[in-house]
Specification:
Beta-Lactamase, single chain, 44% helix
C-alpha cells in the first residue's frame, strides 16, 4: 500500500471517527433534551402535519393519556368541538399562540394556553400550559368587578375616580346629582364642572394632597354646582387608591342640600325661638316634675328678682315649688298638669327672691315621650300683681260708685233740708240774747246740723261725686298748716312728730281735702294707740319708675310727693288690710265710727291722681304711704279773709222751687236790707225778671228747677239784660251741676247747705264784682 492509499485510508477512518463522535453527541443531546422536556412543568409535544409524534410526561399527566395513546393521533381529539379545533388552528397559524379548552381523558375540561414553534413546514413543537386556575381566578375577578360595578352603578351615593383634577370614572348617581345626562358628559372633564368656584381651590388642594400621600381629611363638605348653575351642598367620603398603576382618589359623595337647608332652617328657627325666648314679654320656663329648673328666660329671672337665668338654673336649691307661698297651690298645679297635660291662667301668690309677694299667672303644659312618660313641664308666666291691684281698685271704685250713686241721690233733698234747718236756726241764734237759757240747745242744734253737712260732704267726697278744685300747693305747707289742729286731737302719751323734707314739693291739690286725709289718718292712728305710742308724719320726694310699678302693682313713672303716716299701734292682719278701704267697714266699737274715714281718704287720693298703700302687721303698727304727683308750677298762697256779712239795699230775685229754702233766703237777705222778689220755678223766675228787670240787681238761681233750669233762665235774662249779676246755688252733686253747664271760672256758685253768713258774704261779693 503506497503512501497515497495509506493517507486516504487514514483520512476515511478519521472522518468516520468524527462522524461517530458527532452522532454520539447528537444522541446524547437528544437524550438530554428528552430528559429536560420530560421533566418540564409545561406540556410539550412534537406535532407533524397535526399528528402527535411525541409528548412529554407532563403532557400525559396533564391530560390523563399515556404516551402511546398520544402518538399517531390527530390533535383534534383534544378539542371540545370541530369549530374550536379550527378556530384554535387558525389563531395558532396566524399568531403562534392561542387560549383554548382541552378535553381530558376523564372527560373533564381544562383551560389551556398553546404556543407553537415550527421546526419545518410540517412539524412544530407544541407547548401547553394548564391555565384553568388562572382562568377561574380571572373569571372570579371579572365577576367580582362586574358585581362591584353593579353595586356602584346602583348605589344611592355618587362615586367617582379622580386623577389630578380630572374625572376618570363616575357612576349613574354622580351624573344624576349634578344634572348631567350620561357619564361621558363628565368623564375626562375637570372638577370645575362639579365644584362651585367658591370651594374649587380648597377641594383641589385636598384631592392633590391625598394623591400625594399627605394627611388630608377623609370626610368633608363642599359647595357643588349643577349643570344648570344651581349651587348644591355635597358631603364627601374619599380614599386614596391606584388605577392602572397611578394614584387616584376614590370619591363617594351625596347631595345634602335638603339636609343642609333643613339644618339652616332649623338653626334659623332655633335662633328665632331663642330670640323669642330671650326677648319675650312674659317669663318662660322648663322644669322637671319635681320642680328643678331646666331653663328659664331673662324675663322669668327678672320677675323673681334674679340677675340672670343662669343664677336660677345653676342652683339646685332653686325649685318651682319654693316660689309658691301656699304649698297647696303647687300641689294643685301638678295635679292638673298630670291629669289634663295643660293648665291656663292659673293665678297664685308667689314670693320673689327679696321676699316680696307677687301675683303670677301661669300657662303650662306637660311634655311626654312617645310612651306617655312625663319628661318635664314647660310654660309661661306673667306678673299680674299690678293687674290684681287694679282689679282691687276697680272693685273698690265700684263700691264707691254704688255708695256715691246713693249719696248723690239723697244729697239734694238732704242739703235742702239742712239749708232750712241751718238758715232758720242761724236767724234765731242771731236774734237770741246770749243769756237766753235756750241758747245752749240752739247751739247744739246748729252743731249737729253742721255735722250732718260734713257727713253729706264726706259721702260725696269718698264717692268722688264732689267736684274738686285742684291748685298748685306746697305739700309741706299743707302738712305744717294742719300740725296744730292735729296735735289737739292727740293725748299726751302720744309722741307726735312731723318730718318735712327740706325741698318744697309742689302738688295739684284741694287743700281742704288733703286736710281731711290727714285728719282721718291721724284720728285712726290715735284710736289704734290707746296706751300711747309714736305717731309720725313724714314728707319726701320720690320717683316712681317702671320697676317700682311692677314690684308694687301701682304707679305711673314720674316724680311724686310722698306723705307717710306711721304709728306704733295695734296693727292689722291681712284680712283687715284687705277691707279697710271698703265703705262702712270699721274695727271700732259700735257707735264709735262710721266706717267712712279711710274710704274718704281713698276717694280723695284717687281724685288727686295719687296712690295709697298700707303696710301693717299685728302688733307692729301701721304705715300709710300716700303718693301725689309732683308738678313744677308755682304754688298759690291760701288766705282766709274774714267773712264779710255786710248787707245792702239792692233788689234780689230768688228763684227756688223749695218753699222752705225760699223762706230762709227771704229772711236772711231781708234782715240785711235787701229787697227780695221770690219765684217758685224757672218760668216764674223768667216772668218776674221781665216785669222787674229795671230794678233787679242780682238773680239767685237754683240750678235744678221745674219747667226751666237755672242755666236756661240765666241765658234768657242775660239776653234781656246782659249786665245783670247771677248767683247759682244747688244741693245736687258737683256732677249734676256740671252737667247743667253751671260750673266754671266765669260762673258764681254757692253750694247748699249754706250758712246765712256765707250766703250774705257771697251775695255782697257778687254785687260788688269782687
Amino acid at each position: 500500500m503506497n503512501d497515497a492509499e495509506r493517507t486516504k485510508v487514514e483520512l476515511i477512518e478519521t472522518v468516520e471517527a468524527l462522524q461517530r463522535r458527532a452522532e454520539q453527541k447528537i444522541v446524547k443531546s437528544e437524550q438530554s433534551l428528552r430528559t429536560i422536556l420530560s421533566a418540564s412543568a409545561i406540556g410539550i409535544g412534537l406535532v407533524t402535519d397535526r399528528v402527535i409524534e411525541w409528548v412529554n410526561e407532563f403532557m400525559c399527566g396533564m391530560l390523563g393519556y399515556s404516551l402511546q395513546e398520544f402518538q399517531g393521533r390527530s390533535t383534534r381529539f383534544l378539542y371540545e368541538s370541530n369549530e374550536e379545533y379550527e378556530r384554535a388552528g387558525r389563531v395558532l397559524y396566524r399568531e403562534g399562540q392561542v387560549e383554548t379548552r382541552f378535553v381530558r381523558k376523564d372527560g373533564s375540561i381544562i383551560d389551556t394556553a398553546l404556543h407553537v414553534s415550527s421546526t419545518d413546514s410540517y412539524s412544530y413543537i407544541l407547548t401547553v400550559m394548564d391555565i384553568t386556575r388562572q382562568k377561574q381566578t380571572e373569571d372570579a375577578l371579572k365577576e367580582s368587578e362586574e358585581q362591584y360595578r353593579t353595586v356602584i352603578e346602583c348605589s344611592n351615593d355618587g362615586v367617582a375616580l379622580v386623577r389630578g383634577n380630572t374625572h376618570l370614572y363616575v357612576n349613574r348617581k354622580f351624573i344624576e346629582i349634578f344634572g348631567y345626562d350620561s357619564p361621558s358628559d363628565i368623564i375626562g372633564k375637570p372638577m370645575s364642572m362639579t365644584v362651585h368656584p367658591d370651594d374649587l381651590e380648597r377641594v383641589s388642594d385636598i384631592n392633590a394632597g391625598r394623591q400625594e400621600g399627605k394627611p388630608v381629611p377623609d370626610r368633608y363638605e363642599f359647595k357643588g354646582i349643577k349643570r344648570d348653575g344651581t349651587p348644591i351642598y355635597i358631603e364627601v367620603s374619599a380614599a386614596a387608591t391606584t388605577y392602572k398603576g397611578a394614584p387616584v382618589s376614590l370619591v363617594c359623595l351625596r347631595d345634602v342640600t335638603e339636609h343642609r337647608l333643613a339644618e339652616e332652617s332649623l338653626k334659623a328657627a332655633e335662633e328665632k325661638y331663642r330670640g323669642i325666648f330671650e326677648n319675650a314679654i312674659g317669663g318662660i320656663f322648663q322644669c322637671t316634675p319635681e320642680g328643678c329648673f331646666l331653663s328659664v328666660n331673662p324675663v322669668f329671672a327678672k320677675i323673681y328678682g334674679y340677675e340672670s337665668p343662669e343664677v336660677i338654673v345653676a342652683s339646685k336649691a332653686n325649685t318651682m315649688q319654693q316660689l309658691y307661698i301656699n304649698p297647696e297651690d303647687w300641689k294643685r298645679f301638678r295635679e292638673i298638669l298630670d291629669q289634663y297635660d295643660f293648665i291656663e291662667g292659673n293665678e297664685t301668690q308667689q314670693v320673689r327672691r327679696d321676699g316680696t309677694k307677687a301675683w303670677i299667672s301661669t300657662n303650662a303644659r306637660a311634655v311626654r315621650d312617645s310612651k306617655g312618660k312625663l319628661l318635664y313641664y314647660e310654660g309661661t308666666i306673667e306678673d299680674v300683681t299690678q293687674r290684681k291691684h287694679l282689679e282691687s281698685q276697680l272693685l273698690q271704685a265700684q263700691k264707691l260708685e254704688a255708695i256715691g250713686t246713693l249719696a248723690g241721690g239723697i244729697a239734694h233733698d238732704f242739703n235742702n233740708i239742712l239749708t232750712a234747718v241751718i238758715g232758720y236756726g242761724s236767724l234765731i241764734h242771731a236774734r237770741m240774747a246770749d243769756s237766753d237759757p235756750l241758747r245752749i240747745y240752739l247751739d247744739q242744734l246748729l252743731s249737729s246740723s253742721q255735722k250732718a253737712v260734713n257727713l253729706t260732704q264726706s259721702l260725696l267726697v269718698f264717692s268722688r261725686k264732689q267736684v274738686v278744685e285742684l291748685r298748685p300747693h306746697k305739700i309741706n305747707k299743707i302738712v305744717r298748716g294742719m300740725e296744730k289742729i292735729l296735735r289737739r286731737l292727740l293725748t299726751e302719751d302720744i309722741d307726735f312728730r312731723v318730718k318735712a323734707v327740706e325741698k318744697d314739693i309742689i302738688v295739684m291739690a284741694d287743700v281742704t281735702q288733703i286736710d281731711q286725709v290727714l285728719l282721718n289718718l291721724i284720728t285712726n292712728a290715735r284710736d289704734a294707740m290707746p296706751e300711747g305710742g309714736n305717731l309720725t308724719i313724714e314728707t319726701k320726694e320720690v320717683r316712681i319708675d317702671e320697676e317700682f310699678a311692677r314690684l308694687h302693682g301701682y304707679g305711673e313713672p314720674g316724680s311724686y310727693a310722698l306723705i307717710s303716716v306711721s304709728d306704733t299701734g295695734t296693727g292689722m292682719d291681712e284680712r283687715t288690710k284687705a277691707k279697710i278701704f271698703e265703705p262702712f267697714f270699721t274695727t271700732k266699737e259700735s257707735g264709735k265710727g262710721t266706717g267712712l274715714g279711710l274710704s274718704i281718704v281713698y276717694g280723695i287720693v284717687k281724685q288727686h291722681g295719687g296712690y295709697i298703700n298700707v303696710l301693717s302687721e299685728p302688733g307692729e303698727g301701721t304705715v300709710f304711704h300716700i303718693y301725689f304727683p309732683a308738678v313744677k308750677t308755682k304754688s298759690e298762697e291760701v288766705t282766709h279773709a274774714p267773712i264779710d256779712v255786710k248787707g245792702g239795699t239792692e233788689t234780689v230775685l230768688v228763684a227756688e222751687d223749695n218753699s222752705d229754702i225760699r223762706g230762709v233766703l227771704r229772711e236772711v237777705l231781708g234782715s240785711k236790707g235787701y229787697v227780695v222778689i221770690e219765684a217758685e220755678d224757672g218760668e216764674d223766675a223768667l216772668r218776674k225778671f221781665m216785669e222787674h228787670q229795671d230794678v233787679i240787681d242780682l238773680v239767685i238761681l237754683d240750678v235744678v228747677m221745674p219747667k226751666r233750669n237755672g242755666r236756661q233762665v240765666c241765658d234768657e235774662i242775660r239776653r234781656a239784660k246782659a249786665q245783670v249779676k247771677v248767683l247759682f246755688t244747688s244741693g245736687y252733686t258737683g256732677e249734676v251741676v256740671i252737667d247743667k253747664g253751671v260750673r266754671g271760672k266765669a260762673v258764681d256758685f254757692i253750694a247748699k247747705p249754706v250758712a246765712p253768713d256765707d250766703l250774705l258774704a257771697k251775695v255782697r261779693k257778687v254785687l260788688d264784682g269782687r
